[in-house]
Structure formats: structure tokens, C-alpha cells
Amino acid sequence: MKKWFFALLVPTLVFAYSPSNQNTCSDLKLNTSSLGQVRNQGNISWCYAFTASDMLQYTFKTSEKISASDIATNYNKTRIGKLMDLFLNYGEPHETGFNKVALIHAMKSGHCPESIFPSEEWVKVTHDSEEKVLMTEAMKQIKDLHAHRGELTFENLPFYFKFKNIDKETFLSILKSKNKLKNFYTELRAKACQNERINFDHQWKVKMILRNKNIFKRIHSQLNLGRIIGLDYDSRILENAQNQSIKISSLHTSSIIGRRWNNETNTCQYLIRNSWGDKCERYDQSLECQEGNLWLSESMVFKNMTSIVYMKAKSQ
Length: 316
Known about the structure:
The chain is α+β, with helices and mostly antiparallel strands. The protein has two domains: 227 residues, Cysteine proteinases (Cathepsin B, Chain A, Alpha-Beta Complex), CATH 3.90.70; 73 residues, no CATH class. Helix content is 34%, strand content 20%. The protein has eleven helices and eleven strands. Strands 1, 5, 6, 7, 8, 9, 10 and 11 form an eight-stranded antiparallel β-sheet that branches. Strands 3-2-4 form a three-stranded antiparallel β-sheet. It is elongated, with a radius of gyration of 20 Å.
């Protein structure tokens, strides 16, 4: 745990790195088509969970998309999740986390399919009508319901959110029985995913490497093995390509899924799969964006990163 906290201090250290040459940076793009379009985390800071779900799905070649909201809610049960709640008193599912912790805990607990516990839109039922609502908006509406849970009955409940194994009666029962919202979501997840959870057939090691002068050698070695890499960095670079500093409150996690050599700038570039949706309007217009995937130069990555996380077989 100390190492993970130390990762937050590394950005204050300034040192040079060993840039990649053209031979090292051969064109490579991992085939991530099975992951589908880039998902949108909305206004909830579950980037680490969206990245972890992609890494797990890609590594284990699961037949269904893995739920990022399942991984994020599961994070509350980790030691570091409980510690953060103790000191910060969230009372709700907290919104930041370490990609490494999420990966390890998910492999132990198994995963829930995205179709069972969605991470972008939830189905809202009002009387006899249904509509899809962004998950972040749904959570705001649930927070309001929870604040008045003592007054709610089956007859006056204005709406509820439907999942497999979650009907109106079950939703209300969970809402009224949990004093903290984070416990409501833990139980909601458990009920929705009951009998749907899928165990991983084996465990992989998870490595977290802090930024260092040889960090790109490690990135290249993993890409050459066909592995997705989790990147922890300052998200401000995505909206301002000139950003060259790191602020703890702006830390973000995405994945590296490719590389190429840019002959014009004579530098290596990396393809970043983010979780802000498949549109490009939000990003700095000087960055090349492909359906929500972005090309960042090696110097941009280095100046804004804190660490990388990757998975490796037990025998390696």
C-alpha cells in the first residue's frame, strides 16, 4: 500500500527519460475490436474501473463485456477502499481508486457482465413507462430518494431502477435498509449479479511501475507481447496539449493500446483508449482523435504520467 501512495508523490520529481528510437517504436495497434466502442464514464471518476474492465476483458478474452460499475463498487470492499472511506467519510461509492487494486480484487471476486450491471445507462421505471438514464444522473436521483427513504412505500415510490433480479420491491427494500449509499450500491450489485457472476479460470500477476527514465522500455515490451497497459497520468493533457505538470486532483487512468513512429516530429506516439466516450469534441483540437482514442507523443506521456500497470502470467 505504501508503494501506491508513493506513486502520488512521484510527479514532484523531475528527471530525464530515454526516448524511443524508430526501430523500437515500430507501428503496432492491438486488436481491441472485441472491446467495442469507447465507453463514457460521464461525471463519475471511475476511470480506473473502466480501464480495469477493458484490461480484464482483453486479457481473458471474455465472451461478454465486463461491467466497470461492478468493478468500481467492488473496490469499496478492498482494504484501501475501506481506509479511504474511514478517513474521508464518503458515505457513497467513492470515485477514485488504484487500477492495480481493482484488477487484483476483480480477479479474486469474478466479474459481472455489462449487460447485467451497466456502466453507462440504467433503466428507470416510472409507473408503466421506462427510459434509459445516464448512470451518473441515475445516481443523483437515487441520492435524492435515499435522503427520504423513511417516507417511501411501495405505493408512493415515484420511480426505481430496474436490473436483472431487481424489481420495484427489491429496489425499495435495499434502499430503505441501507443507511449509507455505498452500502446500497454494494447490495444492489450483489442482487443484480447473483447467479450471473463469472469466475476467472486463473490469476495473473499485476505489476505497477512508477515513472522512471526507462519506463518506455517496459511499455514497449508489454505492447510487443500484445498486452494492454494501464496509464496513470494527469488528465489535463487531454484538453490542453501544453500541460506539463501533474496535479493529484487531476489524476486519471486510461489504457495504451498502440504505438507508431511520427516521421515529422521524429518521435514515438502512443494510442490512448480513454473513457470519455467515442466523440472527439472535448479534446484539444491539436491532438489526433479516432473515435475517442487519442495519439499522444512520448514526451507528452512522460511529462504527465505517474505510473503504468500491466498484467503478466504467473510463470513470467
